[in-house]
Amino acid sequence: MRTLAIFSLPWFCLSCSQLADHGPISAKTQIQMEAMALTKDEFIQQMKRTNSRPTQSVTLPFSMKAGVPVLNAAINGHGFSPIMLDTGASRTMINASTAVAKKVHVLRAVDATVELQGVVGREQGRIGLLNPLVLGEWSLNGYPCLVRTFENRVAYTQGGPRAFPESLLGFDVALNACSFLTLDYRSKNVTFGFGKSFESQAGKRTAHAPFKVKQGVPMIHLQSGKVGWDAIVDTGSFNGIEISEEVAGHLGVKDKGRRVEGLYLMSVGGTVSSRQANLRTVKLPDLALIGDRYKDAEVDISPGPPRVGSYFLKDYRVTFDFRRKLLWLEW
User: How buried is residue 158: exposed, middle or buried, by Cβ count under 10 Å (0-12/13-18/19+)?
Assistant: First the structure.
């Protein structure tokens, strides 16, 4: 059996829920998933299905749920369902319950499993095969994904359906196939670019900065005073600017800040309250990123690596220009 290690970031915080447990999927779901398991040879054969990329860009609407972009995608021809667009995730991921409902085949555990490492723990997962994954006019046949076999169980105080989807569309989909990826937070549209290079909109103000892909996710450079660090551009984070405990130490603010109360961070490996995570807000005298400088910038000290999330990006048309390795902001 081959085991792969994959790091996964926190996903979102909820202010209207009560902390509950984190545990494995039910025995029933496990049995149903195993009934659809493929051998290694069968899995590889399914991955060889022909794919053709669109000849022009594909644009889809999205909505903001719990502070993150959510669009509709179809999996295995079983209708459209919400999926979070998460550039902070290196791989597309679904839950085991979704795999069962959408009849997604998984690779047998004796052939390979994955170890998903989160900031509050780790859990074992499986490798699945989306056949196809449909995004508007774009169809991806035999596309591998991760399948979680654990769940973050949250009790909602206000009742009603969950505010966010259980599946996420990782950065891998656009990185492997597109010339650019644009999230227009103002018009609530996402564009997967094909063929032509990205061109900024005429008459709009623009700023850009180089980005690099590290461990499958996009990273940009930030600086405050003489201290610089790299941060993930993470549309799957509801937050603004987040720094790690290490960066906070370099900036001299590790023992400072206002504690954030009443929120819960959900991640692979567990669910923790903002108090347990020691989430706190501090103010930096200056902060430089993406060609601009901000005075008295508020940032959050949180678990995991530094991130630039959707709360910061929400005022812009954001583009990952894969050909020039530039991150563009337009407004």
Answer: exposed
